[in-house]
Amino acid sequence: MNLSPDRLEDALSRGLAPLYVVAGEEPLLVTESADAIRAAAKADGYTDRRVLHAESGFDWSELRAAGQALSLFAEKTLIEVHLPTGSPGRDGGAAIKAAAEQPPPDTVILIICAELDSRSRNSAWFKAVDKRGVTLYAWTPKGRELTRWLEQRLRREGLSAEPDALNLLAERVEGNLLAGSQDIAKLALLHPGARVTAEHMADAVADHARFAVFDLLDKALAGPPEAALRTLDRLREEGVEPFPIVALLAAELRKLARVVSARDAEAVCAQIGVFRRRIPLMVQAARRHSPASVRWMMAVAGRADRGAKGVDRHDPWDDLVTLVWVLSAGREARGWMAASAAQLEPRIA
């Protein structure tokens, strides 16, 4: 069974599954979901907790041995498997699949991962857990989902917020749920039980809008340019180096080059490993662009890469602004690209 983090509490109230996989791109939601499963297991008598770290060279027979071992002090066991890479490999996949198909008695297995790619989420071991246990994937909430998450968090602390205050909080904590959680806890101390106004929010909440580089990519693929350029500005203000931004955009442009000329864009996205959540954004970007415009952006990305590495003196941030604007604007930028081609091409070459 696949669950979102907001449905976990209700599912746990109906009983524990024998096996859980908790993963996702949002660390706070992954951590809190794992904590909720631990708490439910402890309340149900699973007092023997064993932790396995499945790093490079891990012997997956330890998982089977842990499930078969008898505890001197408890009848029920919680086995945690920390899988930092998100990929258990062939032996690990087989071990997890076997545990899902024949769960050890009086045992709950909790596998905690970071972000999983589409291949891992479609693997045999992941599907086996989904069939016999619970898989939970924590996407970073955005837009209305972020607003709902903040509203729920405020209610948990006994607060409510005026719409303007809620919008201000969403804007300031975008991309950093931990900061949002901390700010709401602070508001609860300053204004217990209150309906928070925009003035309260502005006074109490620090500007935590730490936009991730991947958030920049999502906004540039989705368009329009304003949101993406604002994110790029914030990254620069926070001292993020240009190289990782250039590298990510260049990698995504290589994928876009394959998608833009495809008959079935979604199928190609899945084939080349575009994250499922990002596939609609990639398809939108492909509709705004042509093979020629993607080649033009890749040339600009190449020059930005050389500038970021110090190979030439060109400021890579200038090219990043160009890339983000053109990628997110699409057809609106074609006239500008044509007018600028003669000036830019010699500098790109």
From TrEMBL:
Q: Which GO terms describe its molecular function?
A: DNA binding; DNA-directed DNA polymerase activity
Q: Which residues form the DNA polymerase III delta N-terminal domain?
A: 20-134
UniProt keyword annotation of Cell wall biogenesis/degradation present? no
Q: What is a biological process (GO) this protein takes part in?
A: DNA-templated DNA replication
Q: Note one Pfam family from the annotation.
A: DNA_pol3_delta
Q: Where is the DNA polymerase III delta subunit-like C-terminal domain?
A: 213-307
Write down the top EC class of this protein: transferase
Known SUPFAM superfamilies for this protein? P-loop containing nucleoside triphosphate hydrolases, post-AAA+ oligomerization domain-like
The EC number(s) attached to this protein equal 2.7.7.7
Recorded catalytic reaction(s): these are: DNA(n) + a 2'-deoxyribonucleoside 5'-triphosphate = DNA(n+1) + diphosphate
> Has the keyword Nucleotidyltransferase been applied to this entry?
yes
Q: Which domain of life is it from?
A: Bacteria
Q: Which GO terms describe its cellular component?
A: DNA polymerase III complex
UniProt keyword list: DNA replication, DNA-directed DNA polymerase, Nucleotidyltransferase, Transferase
Q: What family, per the record? A: Belongs to the DNA polymerase HolA subunit family.
Q: PANTHER family this protein is in?
A: DNA POLYMERASE III SUBUNIT DELTA
Output this protein's name. Answer: DNA polymerase III subunit delta
Native source organism of the sequence: Abyssibacter profundi
Where is the organism placed in the taxonomic lineage, from the top?
A: Bacteria, Pseudomonadati, Pseudomonadota, Gammaproteobacteria, Chromatiales
